[in-house]
Amino acid sequence: MAKKSELLPGTLDMLILKTLTRAPLHGYGIAQSIKRLSDDVLTVEEGSLYPALQRLLLQGWVKAEWKKTETNRRARYYTLTPAGRKQLGEELSQFEVMIAAIGRVLQDA
Amino acid sequence: MAKKSELLPGTLDMLILKTLTRAPLHGYGIAQSIKRLSDDVLTVEEGSLYPALQRLLLQGWVKAEWKKTETNRRARYYTLTPAGRKQLGEELSQFEVMIAAIGRVLQDA
DNA sequence: GCCAATATATAGATTGACTATGGATAGATT
DNA sequence: AATCTATCCATAGTCAATCTATATATTGGC
Fold first, then answer.
1. Contact between A39 and B10 using a beta-carbon 8 Å cutoff
2. Residue A55 within any structural domain of the chain
3. Residue A14 has what pLDDT?
4. Average pLDDT over residues B73-97
5. What phi and psi values does residue B95 have, to the nearest 5 degrees?
6. Does A29 fall in a domain?
7. CB contact under 8 A, B42 and A102
8. Which residues of B touch A35 (CB under 8 A)?
9. Distance of CA A11 to CAs A8, A24, A72, A95, B29, Å?
10. What's the CATH number where B31 sits?
């Protein structure tokens, strides 16, 4: 049996970066935001999220800062960098090109 | 450096199955068809294609038959099975749900 | 004779997302 | 006080899918 993924592989980084264009957020909040905006269709598991955030940090696309949440918890807030914004733009247009291409293949006749 | 995929991962089986709804085809022809219909955006590498076809055979979603091509070469023609047609339907609707969800996340504000 | 295009296939590497686990704290409930 | 739920971070190990690279073989054109 094929394991049903909670995400379309290859789209996670883009979703995270996009989420951070709205406001800096901690990891848990990013996952919540994606889940909520997608009406529970997209669920980002912790084992996908945190490695992804490490990747993004390493690439310099986000930066992180420890802060207190409104509820007084310690959390790591991620902010989009200019390089991250540029990267997001590229991923978005690449994604649109791909989706359009897939659409053409899926068209009838 | 991130390797740029020629496909949106997770969509290959769907693309192959869809291609076979038009007519039975050999592997090389499937790749050609996807490439052409997508205006060269989607390129299915051999190392992706043939393993994918093996998976589909194993799942019973396609069946294969050795034949001669129009140009007199020996080639393996793949045909969609009823189970494959059903599978394609499920993958298509799942895909649409995902794309719609991603679209919501990518919307501004 | 040689080369490009057609045709199949596997081995091995890489990537990305998953499961499973470990930790810690706040706030509410019992 | 103890326990539970939700919030929060992170890593190790696994698995599946795609990629690169390679091997083989045939047809047709130059």
1. no
2. yes
3. 98
4. 96
5. -65, -45
6. yes
7. yes
8. none
9. 6, 20, 32, 8, 29
10. 1.10.10.10
Q: Is B56 in contact with B16 (CB distance < 8 Å)? A: yes
Contact A102 B11 (CB under 8 A): yes
Decide if B3 is inside a domain: no
Residue A86: which domain range? 12-106
Question: Which of A9, A15, A105 lies at the smallest CB-CB distance from B18?
Answer: A105
Check pLDDT > 90 for residue B61.
yes
**Is the C-beta atom of B26 closer than 7 angstroms to strand C?**
yes
Q: Is A23 on the interface with B (CB under 8 A)?
A: no
Structure tokens at B100: 């719609």
Task: Say how many residues make up chain B.
Answer: 109
Q: How many domains does chain A have?
A: 1
pLDDT value at residue A2: 35
- Over its length of 109 residues, how does chain A's per-residue pLDDT go in tens digits? 334 578 999 999 999 999 999 999 999 999 999 999 999 999 999 999 999 999 999 999 999 999 999 888 999 999 999 999 999 999 999 999 999 999 999 997 6
Residue B2, pLDDT score:
37
Arithmetic mean of pLDDT, B80-94: 97
The answer as to whether A52 is a domain residue is: yes
Q: Which residues contact residue A5 at a Cβ distance below 8 angstroms, ignoring those fewer than 6 apart?
A: B10
Best to test chain A binding among B15, B21, B55, B106 (most A CBs inside 10 Å): B106
In chain A, how long is the greatest CA-to-CA distance? 58
